[in-house]
Amino acid sequence: KYYLVDSGYPNRTGYLAPFKGSTYHLPEFRLRRHRPPEGKYELFNFSHSSLRNVVERAFGVLKQKWRILKGVPSFSPRTQKHIIIACMALHNFIRDSKLSDKVFDKCDADDEYVPPVLRKEVAPTQADPVEEEENEDSMNNIRSRIADACLAMAR
Predict the structure, then answer these.
(1) What Pfam family is a match for this entry (predicted)?
(2) Which of 69, 75, 135, 151 is 20–30 Å from 85 (CA)?
(3) Is this structure's pTM higher than 0.85?
(4) What is the 3-state secondary structure (H, E, C) of 9-37?
C-alpha cells in the first residue's frame, strides 16, 4: 500500500510544494522494494523529500548549537534572515577552522543523527488573494520545469 501526500500547502514564493496525489515520503519509497520512483511527479517528490530531510537535519543541528534559532519566529523577517546568516557564518567558521564541536561531531559520526529540537507552530502569513494566485502559478511553472529536468536526467 502506498500513501499519497497532500501537504495542504499551495506553491507560493518561498515555498515549493510537492506534487499532490503522488508518493512523497522516503519511507513510502522504501516500502516499494527497490522499485525506483517513476514519472516526473514521483521523481520530483523523491528529490524534494530527500532534500527536505537534509535541510531539516541541518536546521536541527544548527538549532541545537545556536539556541536563538528556536525563537526566530518572534523576530521580524528581516531580523530572522540576519540571525540565520550570522549562525551559518559562525557554523562555517567553526568547520573551516577545524575546531571540535560535539553537536557537529555527532552529526558527522552518524548520518541518521537528528538532534532533539522543539518545534513551534508558526502562523502562516496572510497575502493578498490575487498575489497568492500569481505566486502559485509562477511556482507551479517552476516546479513543473524542475520535474521535467528530473525526468530528463533519469533517462
Answers:
(1) DDE_Tnp_4
(2) 135
(3) no
(4) CCCECCECCCCCCCCCCHHHHHCCCCCCC
